[in-house]
Design brief:
single chain; alpha+beta; TATA-Binding Protein; 3-stranded antiparallel β-sheet; two-stranded antiparallel ribbon
């Protein structure tokens, strides 16, 4: 018969099982949980943390889990509520998939953020050289990352954020935009 934890939190594994299977020290597993890099649940009054299996791939936590946990904690969600949300079945159009299923499809890329000081906050699409640089970088990403360029709300700064497959490449691309911005708006 399944324990109450297994029936309340199906698909979860005890830390001892993870430690044995993945050759990870149980103290490291607990450290990852406390650091927000793993989702863990337990019944009130229990001392045993259980870890949803879907957050692991090839013996290690999926890269997207830490981001999901960070956002959940910023919104005041504890791990039990996050577990409930992630394992809730989606609508009929999603064929009974859960948010955890969708999260397992996410690819996490390196991220680069560069700030550049500006004299004035112009509409970037109306500065042809800046718009062209942004367009070039978007094309280079080929749908394998994202570019976000926005002004700070509190400082005379433009923030250039790039995510992509290769960090040195996206760092150079971000610098291309920064150089054009410095020339025209800096």
């Amino acid at each position: 018969m399944a324990s109450s934890v297994e029936s309340r939190y199906p698909g979860t594994l005890p830390a001892t099982w993870l430690a044995e299977r993945f050759a990870i020290d149980p103290a490291r597993i607990d450290m990852l949980r406390r650091a927000g890099e793993l989702v863990a649940v337990r019944e009130p009054g229990s001392t045993e943390w259980r870890y949803p299996a879907w957050q692991f791939e090839n013996g290690r936590p999926r890269d997207s889990i830490a981001r999901i946990v960070a956002v959940a904690r910023e919104r005041g969600l504890d791990d039990a509520k996050l577990y409930d949300i992630l394992t809730m079945q989606l609508g009929l159009r999603d064929e009974g998939r859960t948010l955890a299923d969708l999260a397992s499809d996410l690819t996490s890329y390196p991220q680069v953020l560069v700030n550049v000081r500006v004299r004035e906050k112009f509409d970037l699409q109306k500065v042809p050289a800046v718009a062209a640089a942004m367009s070039r970088i978007e094309s280079r990403l080929e749908g394998q990352g994202r570019l976000l360029v926005r002004y700070s709300g509190t400082e005379p700064l433009l923030r250039v954020m790039l995510e992509g497959r290769h960090e040195p490449e996206i760092r150079a691309w971000a610098q291309e935009i920064v150089d054009v911005v410095k020339e025209y708006l800096g």
